[in-house]
């Protein structure tokens, strides 16, 4: 079953389950309305719980997806190999893509090795919880030891607006910590949801941490400042109902995906007419939330697929990169049939870089990529595997390979650019039919040897100084 059919089936299952859940919820709501105030209050709390959980679960899912993205894991594992400027440029592009593509307000990454904080705005800094109170969240999250956690804080790179951050641990295959990543959503959006629910249900809604500290409230003065006392905070229990007075009650419920508690305070005086209106509004709201969830899932799937594909593409040439090449070699470890391994190297790139500049050198590399793509692309895949090194894995009859390579050299000879007049490639190839018992590693080695022999011949006949090649 292909991905499209799997996605459609998943959407269908989610939609049917949501319809069944909505039907059961509405039926239960109607039945319990005839019971006592406690039963009705818990039903209202369940509706609020589902709505808030759906609203805040998306950034949690996004943060978890980022924490398992191979691109971030590879960047952190090889961070020392990048300069600060290059790392910041690559990560800013990635984080801004997450922020814009998923419609959140912030995306960030912290390297546990360098303690550098990268933001989607392009800003970066060194995290230092011991001397900078604003960085204490990092130490707190590390001490907690959980895979992910929610935190409410001022966004240092976002006009100091109240923001709900989702922090997620990034680990390697052995479970070693590589860093922390996540996203942030503005408090204003969540507060608008709370305003609407409070108005519709005539209740007061808060999200608090396990200590009762207010994390989300429509009154910003209470955020991270006020505590709700005399409430039942039970992680394992169901909705906890506590009657405060004859016309006032408090309900609490632990939201496992957030690590916070939902606290609902009401005066218990909902009239039948308001209750019917709430049912109608809840039906509309459920349909809207379902549409938003389906839309969000599609965006996440498409964005994740795009990010995965981008990690296999060389940005300068738009050819497949070294990572894609190594995976392709692993899939063709014992090649057969008309498999041909081609190796190519640009001649004189170092000289062009030294005399005409790196922009000219980049033009030369792009020119080589264009020629390789045009001549070899329809027979297989072409890769840029190094600075001026290319490879191709082709399916072409051995008898046709020499003519194909001749056409490639003709295209190279005819090429000219804006900064560089000519292009020269040294090429080598080896076919599986020529070496039927050899693995792709051995065939590649033979192709490399032939390419280096062609390069020696180029420098011998051209009279150019080989020492200035690199």
Quick description:
The protein is of the alpha+beta class and 470 residues long. It contains twelve helices and 15 strands. Helices cover 48% and strands 21% of the residues.
Question: What attributes does this structure have?
Answer:
470 residues, alpha+beta, Beta-Lactamase, Alpha-Beta Plaits, six-stranded antiparallel β-sheet, five-stranded antiparallel β-sheet, 48% helix, elongated
Physical arrangement of strands within the biggest beta sheet: 3-2-1-6-5-4
Could you tell me how far the N terminus lies from the C terminus, measured between alpha carbons in angstroms? 49 Å
Which percent range describes the beta-strand content? 15-25%
Looking at the overall shape, the CATH architecture of the largest domain is 2-Layer Sandwich
Integer average pLDDT? 81
Class from helix and strand fractions: alpha+beta
* CATH C-level category of the largest domain: Alpha Beta
Helix content: 40-55%
Shape: elongated
| DSSP summary: helix tally | 12
The main sheet comes to: 6 strands, antiparallel
Please give the number of β-strands: 15
Q: What fold name stands as the CATH topology of the largest domain?
A: Beta-Lactamase
Order of helices and strands: HHHHEEEHEEEHEEEEEHHEHHEEHEH
Number of domains: 2
Radius of gyration: 30 Å
